[in-house]
Amino acid sequence: MPARPPERSRLSQRLSGLRRLFGKRNLASAGHCASAQSIRDYFRHKAHGQGYTLSHSQQRVIDCMAQQAGLLFGPSAQTPPSLYLHGAVGRGKSWLLDGFFQALPIQQKQRLHFHEFFARLHQGMFRHREQDDALGATLDELLQDCRVLCFDEFHVHDIGDAMLITRLYKALFQRGILLLVTSNYPPEGLLPNPLYHARFKPVIDLINARMQVMEVGGPHDYRSQARNHAHQLFTQGHYVWPATPAQRLALDLPPRDTAPQPLAVGNRVLQARLCTGRRVAFTFNDLCEQPTAVMDYLELCRRFDQWIIDELPELDECSIAVQQRFINLIDVLYDQDKHLTLLGQLPLHESLAGNAIDLARTRSRLGQLPEVREPA
User: Fold this and answer.
1) d(Cα 6, Cα 274) in Å, to the nearest integer?
2) What DSSP assignment string belongs to 174-201?
3) Is 146 exposed, middle or buried (0-12, 13-18, 19+ CB in 10 A)?
4) What are 55-80's pLDDT values in tens digits?
5) C-alpha closest to that of 210 among 161, 163, 177, 164
6) pTM metric for this prediction
């Protein structure tokens, strides 16, 4: 019969085990604190390097993001509450989202403009339409092992999209994904059309229940500050008016009334005014008065880096559908950071009057383009 170990020996083993256990917890706690601090340090250095003074609301968001990172990499590796950032244009929502995405020390993350993700979602669900759960199969394909998903410029104006978004959000939360969203609208301002708003209420309630909703405010439109433009290709473009022959010649732009040439985009054919190398030109009518879609703009962005859009009209004389296509187009070009030369007959602020609900964002983005005006 084996001898029982001395009592002191058994006590020493227990103490050793407790030390190891608490040591692991202390290491995990240290990792938790280090993850949170790394987010704060990242934003502090980023703001300093770009000459920013963080607003109070931006600092609150950064503190929240630091807490999220701490929970994400903490001892229990739990998924923290998701985050919904809203506020006026140019208040730094995308800057905060991009900073958090870049600072997270994991590979299982994705950052997409909502237009792009939603377009991919539609494509995938069409491919998997014969399956019982086309949405689930598409998300498996798009997200794989993603733990953090960032959507920039979330909005919804169409009731058909709204129904799919409701299913999408439920599926993302069921997967335990940390979702970060920016929007110009608070949740209650989504799908404002009174005919449909009540039908979208379930997803608004879901956002309020499962996401921390924070406003990013402040008096400044950061996009209007010239020091923010140097690193952007988009802002190296121009707004040219009144687009005279002399201006076109000086800037190597196609003459007005250049004959259209067919350009295959997916399964359809668009009319372009120039297509050479990575450079392409269209008239406003070619892209926005026709039934084009975000998927067309994304496909064109894969092929062309320098864009010319000619004959910008007075938007308030266009239908809301046409205005919305133009808004979507500028969203894609801005997010994909393409060089844009836009030509019109009037000063930009006069051309961009209109009633479409997201036009303020478009004005803010196009307002970054230097104006090239013919000398008086």
Assistant:
1) 90
2) HTT-EEEEEESS-GGGSS--TTTGGGGH
3) middle
4) 999 999 999 999 999 998 877 667 89
5) 177
6) 0.77
